[in-house]
User: Which sequence fits this backbone?
C-alpha cells in the first residue's frame, strides 16, 4: 500500500489506482478472516487482470504471484455473523470493520454515478485502510504462537 500511496501523491487518483487499493483491501480482509486467497504463479509475461495484485518475492531468484480475493463489504458482514468463522478479537474486528468501510468508498469510486473521483474521500479512505492493514499485520505478528524451543522441551523432560 505504500507504493500505491507514493503513486497517488505523485500523480493523483486514477481508476487503475482505485482498483489497486480495492484489491489490496480485499486481500487484507480475506487474510484477516481466514478466507481463501486465489494465487497463481505469474508467467514471464506478467499480466494481472482487474481485481488482481502482483506480489514479487525473492532477492536473487525473483518470482511473482498474482493474488486475488472475492471479499466484499457484504461478505465481511456475513463472515462475522455466520457463527462458523471463529470470532476475531475486538481489536481485529475493529480493523476489519475499517477495511470494510474503505472498501465501500473504493467500490463507490470504481462504479460512480458521475465520472468524477472524489479525491479527498479517496485520500481519507486510503489512510484509514492502510492504518487498518498495519494494525491487522501487527496483531497477527503479536498474537502468533511461538514455537517451543528444543531446549525448552529438553529442560521440561529433565
Assistant:
Amino acid at each position: 500500500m505504500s507504493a500505491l500511496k507514493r503513486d497517488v501523491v505523485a500523480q493523483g487518483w486514477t481508476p487503475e489506482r482505485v482498483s489497486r487499493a480495492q484489491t489490496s483491501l480485499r486481500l487484507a480482509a480475506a487474510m484477516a478472516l481466514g478466507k481463501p486467497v486465489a494465487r497463481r504463479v505469474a508467467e514471464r509475461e506478467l499480466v494481472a487482470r482487474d481485481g488482481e495484485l502482483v506480489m514479487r518475492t525473492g532477492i536473487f531468484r525473483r518470482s511473482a504471484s498474482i493474488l486475488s480475493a472475492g471479499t466484499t463489504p457484504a461478505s465481511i458482514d456475513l463472515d462475522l455473523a455466520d457463527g462458523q468463522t471463529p470470532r476475531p478479537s475486538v481489536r481485529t474486528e475493529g480493523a476489519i470493520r475499517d477495511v470494510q468501510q474503505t472498501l465501500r468508498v473504493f467500490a463507490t469510486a470504481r462504479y460512480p454515478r458521475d465520472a468524477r473521483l472524489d479525491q479527498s474521500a479517496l485520500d481519507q479512505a486510503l489512510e484509514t485502510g492502510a492504518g487498518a492493514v498495519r494494525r491487522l499485520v501487527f496483531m497477527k505478528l503479536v498474537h502468533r504462537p511461538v514455537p517451543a524451543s528444543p531446549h525448552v522441551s529438553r529442560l521440561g523432560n529433565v
Observations:
- The longest helix spans residues 119-142.
- The chain is about 55% helix and 10% strand.
